[in-house]
Amino acid sequence: MQDPNIRPISVAEEVKNSFLDYSMSVIIARALPDVRDGLKPSQRRILYAMHELSLYPPKKHMKCAKICGDTSGNYHPHGEAVIYPTLVHMGQPWAIREPLIDPQGNFGSVEGDPPAAMRYTEARMTQLGGTLMSDMEKETVDFVPNYDERLTEPTVFPAAFPNLIVNGGTGIAVGMATNMPPHNLGEVVDAVCAQIDNPQITCSELQAHIKGPDFPTGCVILGTNGIREYMETGHGSVRIRGQAEIVENGNREQIVITEIPFNVNRAELVKRIAELANEKVITEISGVRDESDENTRVVIDLKRDARGQVVLNNLYKHTALESSFSIHMLAIDGGKPRVLSMKDAIACYVEHRREVIIRRTRFLLKQAEFRAEKLEAQLLALGHLDDFIKIIRDSKSRDEARERLKAYNFAVSTAEQLGILIRGQASVIGDRYIFTDKQVEDILELRLYQLVGLERDKIKADYDEVLVSIRDFMDILAREARVLQIIKDELQAIRLKHATPRLTRIEAAEGEIENIDLIPNDPTVVTMTHLGSIKRTATAEYRVQGRGGKGLKGMETREAQGEDEASDFVERLFSAHLHDFLLFFTNTGRMYVERVHQIPEASRTGKGRSIKNMLNLRAEEKIAAVLILEAQGQEDEAMWAADKYVLFATKDGTVKKTALEEFKNYRKDGIIAIKLDEGNDLVDVVLTDGNKEVCLVTHEGMCARFHETGDDPETPNLRAIGRNTAGVRGITLDDGDFIVSCITNEPDTMVLVVSENGLGKRTAFDEYRLLANRGGKGVTTMNVTEKTGKVVAAKAVHDKDELMLMTTKGQSVRIRVCDIRETGRNAQGVKLMGLNEGETIQDVATVVTDEADSGEEAAPAAAEAGAEPAQESPPAEDAPAAE
């Protein structure tokens, strides 16, 4: 008999779920820092274990073995051996800008020497490290049970200074990684205060405070473009150089290196310089030696006739003396990984400190009210001491005394005369002041020495002081400005005590120009899959083939891993140049913007990367359409000219026209492009000049053609309306039909229609009746049959254009438009591409061609590259026209 507790499961499903659980555990609870306190869970637990051991200055250091043991046994059950390196890193002054650990003993070196064993080294927290946990006992943060529920641990520290920005951090999770540079504490505090004063501050204005990274090893940053880029977007790259100078030594020159780039191993750098000299790559070096102590000093001796500057430039070129530091500011925000700009990181920290201040004030207010309640009872008792003593003496037990004191008839007016705070209706019934149970206990606990005059005055003074505190706490909770001012004041106090001068210098790079100017404006093909992978590939990798060819493998797609999982397939491709802008429109009607060169490059068969690494898409969003905006210069406002319009078409036949200039103030998180009803999706987007003919093509082969302006310019068919609007009816659809494409009538173009089964045809625009008004049903554009399949796309094409066709299984073929025969509007078309069983056409795009990449020159070029020239396929027979 089968055990009822045993049930069959899908191995693929179990492996998928287990890996997702593992991935989230690594991302959230291990590898990435929290945006609020800048710590990973292991770092936070080490510091909290040291807090429990009271390892604050000026207390003596404690063995690292004890610290690691307590951390492992109480909070982080992964063994002391894996905890110790994390502890060591927080105490290495060359690895962290503001050390959180004060080490004693051998904690390694900048040359990569390992630290001594944990039984030999000792540590305590630095004063700055201790401030991360200040006020933690005042209910400022949440505590959760530890791994075995014996103890509790904080989910985050109060973080009196922005540790994430100051010390940065690194971490490799599953599918994502972070690499945040350190910054100067004083500059960061100034920037936080500036953003509190002006929440609308720009990144360029923040850069007036935060000059850029401030590495603990000093060094020099070349140029500001990389700094501006990562501060605005959260990712970028900066070039850093070690500090070196050329000095005279008799009749020879020496190069003395006094600072090395961040994360560069000094011993490896010296070794590499010696190798270059021995291998005669740099022949002017006669010797190199490391004279460093606690400060870096590497001396390179040059030959008699050597030119020091030439040698130094070669060292920058061939060694890590000049290197690149890639920045990706990824941190956990609200339980989710998020790429942060500098402004975002500051905003998250300010919000965290705001919550800490409010929670601390509430705690202090509650404590002050408890104190006021006690002092209030004592003052009332001392004011009527004889009555209270008589009540107590006449009582037979403590319980009787408690009841008689609570029933004592004490007038509100008398309490007011004594200066007692009337704490609302809970303390007053009619004209009587009612003692609470706690106050009665406080009266019974009065000591005889408190009856003397001086003690009574002291109680009254303490009570008045508590009342002032209560009013102050209530004012803080009532006024947001007070909370923000406290954040600024506390940060300035830390700045005054702990800020140090900037170590890293920033210098202008020679002939500094925008990164875009270093990128050739080459044509490329951008490919996107149904599950959201994206890549760009040079057009030369797709050789020209004859109509009807089998095509080349265009993109590796992921196969289904189980019965419940769908295979990925190529959903769209389009051509652009590297300098162009891509306007991504999602099915929900939002728009995102990215430059083409920022899309990851991959080979023709490469899988690409998830588009979520580029765009901050929402969970329910998919890319529905992409608009290419040709770059006319990086700062050229002509790209967003007022005489250009964006034309939208939705699945249910709605169209909308909006001026392009309304989209120029785009944001990284996207903006609303069109308002959609529930269940409707955005299908296509085109760019117009406001005076075009529009063709709406449907899945069932219908086409409605109308002019944007119509017969009467005073009442145009399509009037330009705002971004956050829904649009108007463009075509009347039959049941089950929907729009697949929206095209405009460009000069010398024809309508190209392609069906699922690889058939296509070109037809003149004039064959489609021009409707007087939008909203009509239209006419047939392709005779849809079982042989042709439904219509998948329509394009406006020129004779000189080339097409890229991609199938659901990743096959692609590039053909010339001129090879496609012109047919009538109601014909089925000709065969464009041979398809395998179960394969259908998924997307079609026109390809931007180069002279060296088209025509007869394509095959020789492929042969020179070692590829087999494409063979011209015989044309297929035309499919018969419908009657």
Automatic annotation (TrEMBL):
Cross-referenced InterPro entries: GyrA/parC_rep, Gyrase/topoIV_suA_C, Topo_IIA-like_dom_sf, Topo_IIA_A/C_ab, Topo_IIA_A_a_sf, Topo_IIA_dom_A, Type_II_DNA_Topoisomerases
Source domain of life: Bacteria
Location of the active site: 120
Gene Ontology terms for molecular function: DNA topoisomerase type II (double strand cut, ATP-hydrolyzing) activity
EC number, as in UniProt: 5.6.2.2
Entry keyword set: DNA-binding, Isomerase, Topoisomerase
Chain intervals for the UniProt region annotation (Disordered): 849-883
Domain named Topo IIA-type catalytic: residues: 32-518
Catalyzed reactions per annotation: ATP-dependent breakage, passage and rejoining of double-stranded DNA
Composition skew (Low complexity), residue ranges: 857-883
UniProt xrefs under SUPFAM superfamilies: GyrA/ParC C-terminal domain-like (SSF101904), Type II DNA topoisomerase (SSF56719)
Similarity comment: Belongs to the type II topoisomerase GyrA/ParC subunit family.
PANTHER family: DNA GYRASE SUBUNIT A, CHLOROPLASTIC_MITOCHONDRIAL (PTHR43493:SF5), DNA GYRASE/TOPOISOMERASE SUBUNIT A (PTHR43493)
Protein name: DNA topoisomerase (ATP-hydrolyzing)
